[in-house]
Design a protein that fits this description.
The protein is built from eleven helices and five strands. By secondary structure, the protein is of the alpha+beta class. The protein has three domains: about 10-90; about 95-200, no CATH class; about 205-290. Strands 1-2-3-4-5 form a five-stranded antiparallel β-sheet. Strand 4 (about 270-280) and strand 5 form a beta hairpin. Helix 3 (about 45-55) packs across helix 4, helix 4 crosses helix 5 (about 90-115) and helix 5 (about 90-115) runs antiparallel to helix 6. The protein is flat.
Length: about 300
């Protein structure tokens, strides 16, 4: 016990080793590669053009802002490299810097979530919860007594007291932590799926397909009316300024039965065209596009 007290620093915790290696990797690679992106890739010029074209600022101001962002960006890589090296060497300043970085990251996640809520409130909420929870978990770990003791901040006696607690308490903490992680991940996944489904429902191919299906006497005869779309839409939707494509499966429900409406559409010269529209139901299929099936 006396030997432990004489050397208050223990071996590096596994979590600190992982965090240090990640920060070192990002910091060192970024420090070496980013100047090439500026000098060879013209990163500053690209950023300046974005300011000039999207925000309509003057050329001089756009160059100044791009230069400032490039400097701060590079400084971030250098800071990551210093932070990773400091954590690897168990230096107190590095731990304090890592803790401060987590608080800043949590604040930025909240601010970005509030701003993004103007466009996608559900996805912004889920992303904010996910990021804030992630950085809060790292912050909790960095403030644990075993980590603080490794950096010589708290006495060994607190670690001895922590290790003497019943194993049952440890398993309870692990279970609670796992439940929190699953809950945060579930919230984020649910918000992401909701947003994707909402975007697909607001797309032109979806609206065109639903209009065709509800106007088809064959579909109405098989599924009844009103014809509703309930549940998740699956597939892919890609839309650019003038071209794109859609491959969707829309669940349909009516008083007489259920089915799935398969949609294939193409965007050419800013105009959407249906290439295939087929309803699959329990008794067979009904083709609506390109050639309509005869009603039975």
């Amino acid at each position: 016990m006396a030997a432990i007290l004489m050397n208050p620093r223990t071996k590096r915790p596994v979590g600190i080793t992982i965090i240090a290696l990640i920060l070192l990797w990002i910091g060192v690679i970024g420090t070496l590669i980013f100047p090439l992106m500026i000098l060879v890739g013209g990163m500053s010029g690209i950023i300046a053009r974005l300011f000039e074209e999207e925000l309509y600022v003057s050329r001089v101001l756009s160059i100044a802002l791009a230069s400032l962002i490039s400097i701060l960006w590079y400084a971030m890589y250098v800071f990551y490299a210093w932070l990773g090296y400091g954590l690897w060497k168990l230096r107190r300043k590095a731990l304090q810097g890592a803790i401060l970085m987590q608080w800043i990251a949590i604040a930025m996640a909240v601010v970005v979530g509030i701003v993004a809520a103007y466009w996608q409130p559900v996805l912004a909420f889920g992303t904010c919860i996910f990021l804030a929870g992630f950085y809060a978990a790292i912050l909790w770990y960095l403030k644990r007594p075993v980590v603080q003791q490794a950096f010589g901040i708290v006495p060994v006696s607190s670690i001895v007291g922590e290790n003497s607690r019943p194993a049952q308490n440890t398993w309870v903490k692990v279970a609670v932590g796992a439940a929190i992680v699953l809950a945060i991940g579930g919230i984020f996944a649910g918000c992401l799926l909701y947003t994707i489904n909402k975007m697909m429902r607001s797309s032109k191919p979806y609206q065109m397909a639903m209009d065709k299906a509800t106007a088809s006497p064959c579909v109405v005869a098989k599924l009844g009316t009103p014809l509703l779309s309930k549940g998740m839409i699956s597939g892919n939707l890609e839309e650019g300024p003038s071209d794109g494509s859609a491959d969707l499966d829309i669940p349909l429900t009516g008083p007489k039965g259920k089915g799935s409406l398969h949609v294939e559409a193409e965007l050419l010269d800013s105009v959407w065209n249906l290439k295939d529209l087929t309803l699959a139901y329990s008794e067979g299929q009904i083709h609506l596009v390109p050639d309509a099936s005869p009603c039975e």
